[in-house]
Write a structure and sequence with these properties.
Blueprint (H helix, E strand, L loop, with lengths): L15 H6 L9 E3 L11 E3 L20 E7 L1 H4 L9 H11 L5 E7 L9 H6 L8 E5 L2 H4 L4 H8 L10 E4 L5 E4 L35 H23 L3 E6 L10 E3 L2 E3 L1 H14 L3 E4 L1 H7 L3 H4 L10 H17 L5
Parallel strand pairs: 3-4, 3-5, 5-8, 8-11
Antiparallel strand pairs: 1-2, 6-7, 9-10
Helix pairs in contact: 3-11, 9-11
Amino acid sequence: RSPGPVKPEWSNYGGPAIEQWGTKFPAHKPMFYTGVIGHPLEYSATLIPNRFGAYDRDHRFEDPDQRTRILILGDCQLEGIQSELYQRVGPRLESMLRRRHGKDVEVFTLAHSNAHPAAVWSMYEKLGRKFRPDLVLIDVNAPSVVQMEPRLLKNLTGWDPEHSAYGSMVLTADDKLKYIPGDPNYPAFAGKATYEPLQGVPANWVMHLKEEQFCPEAKELARIFKAVTAKYVADARDYGGRVAIYTGARVATYPKPQTFEGKLASQEQFVENMKRWAAEAGAEHVDISKAIQSKHPQFDKIHFWKMDGHPTETGHHWMAEGLAEQLIAAGLVR
């Protein structure tokens, strides 16, 4: 039975920011986060969302200093509610680009848990693009991106694709993108995740194969991903911006190649697929996994919280360091 409409005042989530900006927190309301319920305390973070209801510093739309503006879109790793604001990837990336590389930049972050490029479109459209960023940088990792395809979403989460917790996009019969907004009443429609293998491959590994080995769900996921990325590229082009996909922030999730019924699945192949799809959609691509691991070979083992599974302060620092180096090397920051 449906529990009825969810009232935003029941929790820290909601408020006017959702409708106006597509974000999820009440503006300037301090909150506290201490991690996974029922597990030992690993951290305690104080969260103070900005005036838009995003977990980031306050920014103004105007840019009188003519800085290079970078907007990063992503999921819970980027959002970083396990860490204080100044410890996270966004602020650290801005500091490293300015102090180490002499680039006059301003970095914005728009992210929420379990998000993929389609899920953060609402925040981008309502808020992010208003800053007219020179570079839209989209964090891409398999656990979140795989949920862009409706059947894979239901397989891995049990959510009804028409009533998902977050926004999504699907391709219609005439190959046009249709946006499906998130439903705050999604639990009333949710079932149980099945984790059913697809042609012998676990659903969360289907993007780590060569494309000719893809199951039908993975092939559709590729089509959706490229169409959504192309939508960002076309929109950013209108105000003179560029779009880049970046991979490698979640090297800990798939540390070693696996073989499923004779098919090799690996992080390297996932990165290669993302690089190719980004190019086909007109976007750039950078990968930070090797940049991190060449300096910090234990990164994927010791710099994520044991119970929570998200980056520690040091993990955020090293991700920002790798990202700064790769953006400079790719010539994406003027």
